[in-house]
Design brief:
- It contains six helices and nine strands, in the order βαβββαβααβαβαββ.
- With 206 residues, the protein is of the alpha/beta class.
- The protein has a single domain, classed as TIM Barrel (Alpha-Beta Barrel), CATH 3.20.20.80.
- A five-stranded mixed beta sheet has the order 1-7-6-5-4.
- α2 packs parallel to α4.
- The radius of gyration is 17 Å and the shape is globular.
- The chain starts with 8 loop residues before the first strand and ends in an 11-residue tail after the last strand.
- The relative contact order is 0.21.
């Protein structure tokens, strides 16, 4: 199964496609606080000055199972950066909520994507990297089976195309599919209490 393995460094902070130009201008105007772009050299992570970077981060959950981050996701991110001194945030996401397919959403995901953008901006202006992690999928059926599955599906491709278009030019943001998506064997049934989706061949061009 050609798992969706997608890691990109992104250069422009945008949230919703229609406001991309304004978002890029706003964040690009204060690049002095942004962490330097990263690259892998051998077994080390280096910045654009070829200095070794040690990433210390936390997982800030809730946007996978709620559409509003339980009302405090931005505060959690800022606390982790300012008080705990982390330099990378992992942000789990749900493909259905990105497009407003969850039962509680009525705006086609506008508020959800805006919240993600707010978090990306908060990290970028505080010398912190962010990992956008597709963590919850739907077994290929929008609005149903919204949970953590071991297999990606065709809707995961749709998510990544849209998310990549929004953040493809921002060097301080990384995007990845769930680790379970990367390492999963194609199988049916249940495993470790998690639903397995039928094996599907996924193809995508980014």
């Amino acid at each position: 199964m050609p798992a969706i393995r997608f890691v990109v460094f992104v250069l422009a902070v945008t949230g919703v496609a229609g406001s991309a130009a304004h978002a890029v201008a706003a964040v690009a105007s204060d690049t002095s606080k942004m962490p330097l772009p990263l690259k892998a050299v051998g077994n080390k992570i280096l910045n654009s000055k070829n200095e070794t970077v040690l990433l210390r981060g936390v997982n800030t959950a809730s946007l996978e199972w709620t559409s509003d981050g339980q009302g405090h996701i931005v505060q959690s991110v800022n606390t982790a950066i300012k008080d705990w001194g982390v330099n990378v945030i992992r942000l789990p996401l749900a493909q259905d909520r990105w497009f407003g397919k969850a039962p509680e959403q009525k705006d086609e995901g506008v508020a959800y994507r805006g919240l993600v953008k707010e978090i990306v901006d908060a990290c970028a202006t505080q010398s912190c990297y962010i990992v956008l992690d597709l963590h919850w999928s739907d077994c290929g059926e929008w609005g149903t089976n919204i949970a953590q599955h071991s297999m990606p599906d065709q809707n995961s491709v749709t998510f990544w195309k849209d998310c990549a278009a929004a953040y493809k030019n921002h060097p301080r943001s990384l995007q990845r599919t769930s680790r379970r998506h990367l390492g999963c064997l194609a199988e049916r049934g249940h495993h470790h209490g998690q639903t397995q989706c039928p094996a599907r061949r996924l193809t995508a061009n980014f």
